[in-house]
Amino acid sequence: MTRITRWIAVTVLAALLPTAAMAATSADALAAASPEAIVRGVSKDVLDIISANDKDQAKQHQLADARLTPLADFTRMTALAVGRYWRTATPEQQAALTTQFRTMLVRTWLSVLSNHKDAQVDVKGARAGDTPDEQSVHSVVNQAGQNPISLDLMFEQTAAGWKVYDISVEGISFINSHRNQFGTVIRSDGIDGLIKQLSASNAKAASAR
Asked: Which interval of the chain is the signal sequence (predicted)?
């Protein structure tokens, strides 16, 4: 995944955070929403929210973190990104990895919003996944001066409703891209080494913010 397509990927994921209007609805309403309805309902409004808080990175982070919680399955995302090493991690290591991966994702999404504030998401429709509990929503991301980008968001149905667990840009999985990077670190420094690297990176970014 190139740097530009990765920026598009994380920006669109950030655009899919629940809006203030959706956050105000009941948990039952959110759980009942279809993947396509989720994407259609939130893609524009949150970009507007982020734009309105362009000068306040702390507020951006606070809003993004709070609104990501009901949408993404961070545990599954982290497990997929860590790959086969997830099974050998202790519960404590898994929890630490999930926390640091979540923080990294939110930080990354926010760091590129200023470069893609004018992106528009054209939702084309949903299709069934490999199992009845999975769906993918196909969209095209349009931005002035750039070629359209094909985007697929993978959802799984849980007891709490549909959750995003991966995103694919031009056929390249965001999770798979991280799996390759994480695998290299784990083979060199172990799972604790990856946790340490993610923690240090997140701490450095938080200090700068």
From this structure: 1-23
